[in-house]
Design goal:
The chain is mainly alpha-helical. It has one domain. The chain contains five helices and no strands. Helix 1 packs across helix 5 and helix 3 packs antiparallel against helix 4. The longest helix has 30 residues. It is globular.
């Protein structure tokens, strides 16, 4: 499988060669149960969006940056949750398209963190997300 997603060619050698590899048992465990964990998390996140909207009126007099971060976090949460739900069926079938959707979900979350100026959050989520993703990549076929 030749890398063809945005930044995949640059990230692949970093997360496959410079980071420790997972054992085959760990990879298999993640691939087997990960889709279910992601689906439950995505549904709970989307339900959380309704609760988050109830706080919106409190931001009417808030600083513009605070309001921007608030709405950007909602949009990022919705985008990543929808991508996780879209990935569920292809991930269960071990298709590359499911892995691609997870990749874009990690990128979307990373972009959201950067736009919110949460640099530490972006670094931590990006490193962990891409490390796990590239470790299990071989388990998915086109």
């Amino acid at each position: 499988m030749e890398p063809n997603l945005v930044l995949e060619k640059e990230l692949k050698p970093i997360f496959l060669e410079k980071f420790p590899s997972f054992s085959d048992n760990v990879k298999e465990l993640i691939v087997q149960y990960g889709p279910y964990v992601l689906a439950v998390g995505a549904v709970l996140s989307l339900l959380q969006v309704f609760r988050i909207f109830s706080y919106g009126s409190a931001l009417l007099g808030a600083d513009t940056f605070v309001a921007f971060n608030y709405y950007l976090s909602i949009v990022t949460l919705i985008i990543t949750s929808v991508l996780y739900l879209m990935a569920f069926t292809p991930l269960k079938a071990r298709k590359q398209s499911g892995w691609n959707l997870l990749y874009y979900a990690v990128l979307a979350g990373l972009a959201g963190n950067i736009l919110q100026l949460s640099i530490i959050g972006a670094i931590i989520s990006g490193v962990i997300g891409f490390w796990v993703l590239f470790q299990i990549r071989e388990k998915y076929v086109a």
